[in-house]
Amino acid sequence: MSEQFHNSDFKVNIHAPWRIEYINMLNEQQPGCFLCRTRDETDRDAENLLLWRTDNCIVVMNRFPYSAGHLLIAPAEHIGELADLDDEVLLEMMQLARDAQKLLARSIRAEGFNIGVNVGRCAGAGLPEHLHMHVVPRWNGDTNYMAVLGDVRVVSQSLTELYQQLREASVELKLPGVG
Ligand SMILES: [Zn+2]
């Protein structure tokens, strides 16, 4: 692994041990795969913060974001390993990462991004059985701000508003996956 990767800000985002405990607690309260549930509840996209549906993927706002606008790109199918995904689906995921970047840059003026996949629970995957790519928007000088935003109670109040904003921007930008 390169020196550059070690020195990146990515560590700052990943190191939030309290967060995984919180997510695990919620998973126990509502068992089953939340990505599959979100995929299947086609009449509850707004409640589930589902932003886009494409041929093979769904794009969902993270309810426990590292920063406002943190998105998850997942294959529609319940698959946990990159090796088990078809090329078509892998390509679509990267195209969606590109489109998500465009959306977040235009809509909430994100200045940088952390884009990555946590494979396995030891690597920080909250839901290792259903692969998902994180797209975390960043802003210059946001490190301290992030610590504040990392508090679930602070972020959750604005999730619905942000969802509406991102939906409208998606339509404006003619991004795939919106009605
Ligand atoms: Zn699933």
Low-confidence stretches: 1-15, 144-156
Q: How many DSSP-defined strands? A: 5
For the largest sheet, list the strands in their spatial order: 1-2-3-5-4
Q: Would you give the CATH topology? A: HIT family, subunit A
CATH architecture: 2-Layer Sandwich
Tell me what portion of residues adopts beta-strand conformation. Answer: 5-15%
Looking at the structure, what is the overall shape? globular
Order of helices and strands: HHHHEEEHEEHHH
CATH superfamily grouping = HIT-like
Average predicted confidence as pLDDT = 82
Number of helical regions: 8
Overall helicity: 40-55%
Q: What is the C-alpha radius of gyration, as a whole number of Å?
A: 15 Å
Describe the secondary structure blueprint for this structure.
Layout: H1 3-6, H2 10-14, H3 17-29, H4 34-40, E1 50-53, E2 57-61, E3 71-75, H5 87-108, E4 112-117, E5 133-138, H6 143-149, H7 152-156, H8 159-172
Antiparallel strand pairs: 1-2, 2-3, 3-5, 4-5
Helix pairs in contact: 5-8
The structure holds zinc ion.
